[in-house]
Specification:
By secondary structure, this protein is an alpha/beta fold. It has two domains: 191 residues, 3-Layer(aba) Sandwich (Rossmann fold), CATH 3.40.50.880; 116 residues, Alpha-D-Glucose-1,6-Bisphosphate, Chain A, domain 4, CATH 3.30.530. 30% of the residues lie in helices and 26% in strands. The chain has nine helices and 17 strands. The strands form four sheets. It has a seven-stranded mixed β-sheet with strand order 5-2-1-6-7-11-10, sandwiched between helices. The chain has a six-stranded antiparallel β-sheet with strand order 12-13-17-16-15-14, covered by helices on one side. A two-stranded antiparallel sheet has the order 3-4. A hairpin with a 2-residue loop joins β3 and β4. The chain is elongated.
Length: 346
């Protein structure tokens, strides 16, 4: 009798559960199958470039796996602190719906096994996405030819110079060409992954994941590092180093897309006036190059005081810029700083 009562109770409970399940509304965007995501990894892969997209795409319910040239442990950009064991190699990785190419200390050459794998897999993948300087590996596949693309801010000019067939577009954090997507630097990979969740699961799915990971996602705007005004300041450190100026021991930067201020501190034997003269030469040389965001041959530098000079130039879009370069001795007689400020003038 006890057995019969227990069985009856279980049957009744089961019926209630089944009834409740049957009465639940159907999912608004049911997935016919789980999407597969292959994330390329390699020695010196940038941690946030692979881990940011991995977190987002795994939280979205995709089957996310890592792929490398071999099964050997991969040392990331964090060194011994973070090592990865690839799940698959190029030889045995399953076909992915989305291929993610992070950046870091490696850019695959056109004739490499990495590029061969990307080209082979992309033939049947729905999407291919690069993060940061992973755009250079992607460019070497030929998949970006004739398309718009972006990369990390410090590599914009290099991408433009190396691949004139690509329409480099630093004004956007994510560039979606349909099948091929590029994102800007580092944390931009999180935005790219959230965008791909929207693309592959339906509008609103990406925002749901952003809320889950407490990320301030702004799909149609937000911070774009590549448009900040420091893109219009050439690097002068190598030139100064060649003139026996010691490497700086500290620096600060601040600004936005229309204004930038940079201060750099040195412990150097050069007198302030001598350092200013070296800086003038370095900036004249830097702005004479055609690989930057500034217009070639537009730079002018005029003295305005014993330790100051005014400058002006145009950018490639025809906007006018003005600025001030100054050298200032610090309270410690062995230290000196140079300061540069630029502003968009029209």
């Amino acid at each position: 009798m006890k057995y019969e009562i227990r069985a009856t109770a279980i049957s009744a409970t089961a019926a209630l559960v089944v009834g409740a399940l049957l009465s639940m509304p159907a999912a608004a965007h049911p997935d016919p199958r789980t999407k597969k995501v292959a994330i390329l990894i390699f020695n010196d892969v940038q941690v946030i470039d692979y881990s940011g997209p991995l977190e987002v795409l795994a939280d979205a319910g995709f089957d996310v796996f890592t792929v490398a040239a071999t099964k050997d442990p991969v040392t990331t950009s964090a060194g011994e602190a973070v090592k990865l064991m690839p799940r698959y190699t190029f030889a045995d990785s399953p076909q992915a719906d989305l291929i993610v190419i992070p950046g870091g200390g490696f850019e695959a050459a056109k004739d490499s096994s990495t590029v061969a794998w990307i080209k082979r897999e992309s033939a049947h993948a729905e999407h291919v996405m690069s993060v940061c300087n992973g755009a250079f590996t992607l460019a070497n596949t030929g998949l970006l030819d004739g398309l718009r693309a972006t990369t990390t801010a410090g590599n914009i000019n290099r991408l433009r110079k190396m691949y004139p067939e690509i329409k480099v577009t630093p004004e956007q954090r994510i560039i979606d060409n349909g099948k091929v997507i590029t994102t800007a630097g580092l944390s931009s990979g999180i935005d790219g992954a959230l965008h791909m969740v929207d693309v592959m699961k339906g509008q609103g799915a990406g925002q749901s994941i952003a809320l889950t990971i407490e990320y301030d996602w702004r799909p149609n705007g937000g911070y774009v590092r590549g448009i900040m005004a420091d893109r219009l300041i050439p690097s002068v450190y190598a030139s100064l180093h060649a003139q026996k100026v010691s490497d700086p021991f500290d620096s600060t930067n601040r600004g936005d897309k229309d204004h930038w201020e940079r201060t750099v501190w040195y412990s150097t034997p050069q007198a302030p006036a001598e350092l200013l003269a070296l800086l003038k030469t370095a900036f004249q040389t830097g702005y004479s190059g055609d690989g930057g965001a500034w217009a070639p041959k537009s730079f002018q530098l005029t003295p305005s005081g014993p330790l100051t000079a005014n400058l002006k130039f145009d950018d490639r879009e025809g906007h006018h810029w003005k600025g001030v370069l100054a050298v200032e001795p610090e309270s410690d007689a062995s230290q000196v700083a140079w300061r540069l400020s630029i502003d968009r003038a029209g």
